[in-house]
Amino acid sequence: MKNTINLIKMDLELMPTWVALIFLAISGMLMLIPVYPRFISPFYILIFIIQTFSFEAEYGQKQFAAILPITKAEYVRAKTLAVVMYETAAILFTVPFAVISASLFRDFHSFSFIPPNFTCLLQVLLSMSVFNILVMNADFKGQFKVTPACVVGLILYAVISGTIEGVVQSIPALSFMMGLSAHDLLLQLPFAAFAIIFFALTAYISYRSAARNYEKAEI
How many CB atoms lie within 10 A of CB 35? Predict the structure, then answer.
């Protein structure tokens, strides 16, 4: 565990702090736009994560880790946890802005995109899960395979989120998933719980699959 923590710290140190703060600020402030697709807000943290992969290659992070007394699996575990940590931090950071938005712009939310509720969390977590599986596996197959995977991952994030948006708004029986009332939020909770479990499970699958890829890859 100590090796994992140190590797996560190394990942954080490669990326300037102000860059992370900018992406977090964008994620939060976009929640305050009255009529706006909410799933776009955490989208920006994915761009930050892509930047970490770029810095990883630029500074030879994998090559440096190869001379350390750690296993490849430990390195992959640290990278996976770092990615999940960035995404979780972005989601948690947007929560206060989501609460403010839901309070100030309740009338706007009634006829626009999915409001900042648990359905929005479902959108984001499912889309991030697919992004993580795709990008993590590509990164540990080889340096030049992660770039196209990142592009495809961003596209899939938008497609999955947009599909959920369309399904929820087009099926009358799912109208509660557009709500902000206490009753509607309570009905949305099982979907949010499923999304959290799915996100955690796919993170573990990403780690196991990426670790196998990394064992076969040449540094």
Answer: 10
Residue 110 CA: distances (Å) to CA of 132, 160, 210: 32, 22, 42
Rounded to whole angstroms, how far apart are CA atoms 8 and 41? 24
| Segment 74-121, tens digit of pLDDT | 888 888 998 898 899 889 988 888 888 888 776 655 557 888 889 999
What is the token pair recorded at 207? 């780690």
The residue to which tokens 């648990």 are assigned: 118
Percent helix, strand and coil across the chain, each to the nearest 5: 85, 0, 15
Residue 156: per-residue pLDDT: 93
Most confident of 22-26, 116-120, 138-142: 116-120
Helix axes 182-216, 118-139, angle to 10 degrees: 0
Radius of gyration of the chain (CA): 18
The whole-model pTM stands at: 0.86
Rounded distance between C-alpha atoms, residue 120 and residue 93, angstroms: 15
For residue 19, what is the DSSP state? Answer: H
